[in-house]
Design a protein that fits this description.
Blueprint: H1 2-6, H2 9-30, H3 36-63, H4 72-87, H5 91-98, H6 110-141
Helix pairs in contact: 2-3, 3-4, 4-6
Length: about 140
């Protein structure tokens, strides 16, 4: 729906990428962590595709007159977290994959915190977009 609202090729592309991210997120739930390789592929696919989709929508928020400027911040937060996720040290990930039977998980894993913050901000973004689209549709129907 947001893609349609932008009336642009970039918006349609962002919507399609977002749809692929949704499928990847579904697969994260289907593939539990004890199938770590497949779970990780699905999770990274969600992170990458989701960050690209919200990044494109964030950029569109600057230039597209059909989008409210207030949507830029909720779409920029997951993208910024994804960039932090990319540069964050992956030592814990290496430790668990190199010797999973002897790995002792610490109470707080920074990478996991970033993953959940990304998921949370993506959820906030989806709610923000939903509220925006509901308000726009209410105004159109009046």
């Amino acid at each position: 729906m947001l893609s349609y609202r932008t009336k642009s090729k970039v918006g349609y592309l962002a919507g399609f990428i977002g749809f692929l991210a949704m499928i990847a997120l579904f697969m994260v739930g289907v593939l539990p962590e004890h199938f770590l390789r497949n779970h990780t592929i699905a999770a990274f696919s969600f992170f990458i595709l989701g960050a690209i989709a919200v990044g494109l929508f964030s950029l569109l928020g600057y230039w597209n007159k059909n989008l409210h400027k207030g949507l830029i911040i909720p779409s920029a937060l997951p993208f910024i977290l994804f960039v932090i996720f990319l540069v964050y040290p992956k030592t814990e990930l290496h430790n668990i994959t190199s010797d999973p039977h002897h790995y002792i998980r610490p109470n707080i894993v920074g990478l996991a915190v970033l993953e959940w913050l990304f998921f949370l901000t993506m959820s906030i973004w989806i709610v923000s977009i939903s509220i925006f689209l509901l308000r726009v549709n209410d105004k159109v129907s009046e």
